[in-house]
Amino acid sequence: MCSDYPLFIASGRVLEAWREEGIGRPPSQRVFVVGDLPRRLRGSPPPDYYWLDGAQMLGARLDFEASGFVDIKFCGPCGNRTDDIAAT
User: Fold this and answer.
1) Structural domain tally of the chain?
2) Are residues 46 and 28 in the same domain?
């Protein structure tokens, strides 16, 4: 296994903007940030953050070859994708 799973994390403000634009709210769960907040956020409530559950949002698929990705490989056990970033 790769011991890593890609996460897409968005703020509650992003999810609200998507809702207002009619995109809807994707399957998501709240996450909590630990440790010190950046200086500009100290003294105010931290934003809400959510991880988006991509496994529940499969629909359209990206055409990697037509999009210019080079040397694309998928991990058999976990499905994680890699490519040659420098050549892409």
Assistant:
1) 2
2) yes
Look at residue 9 and tell me whether its pLDDT is greater than 80.
Answer: yes
pTM of the model: 0.61
Determine the average pLDDT of the residues in 68-73. 91
3-state SS record for the chain: CCCCCCCEEEEHHHHHHHHHCCCCCCCEEEECCCCCCCHHHCCCCCCCEEEECHHHCCCCCCCCCCCCCCCCEECCCCCCEECCCCCC
Q: Is the dihedral of CA 31, 37, 18, 82 positive or negative?
A: negative
For residue 10, give its domain range: 1-57
Predicted confidence at residue 3, as pLDDT, reads: 46
21 and 46 both lie in a single domain: yes
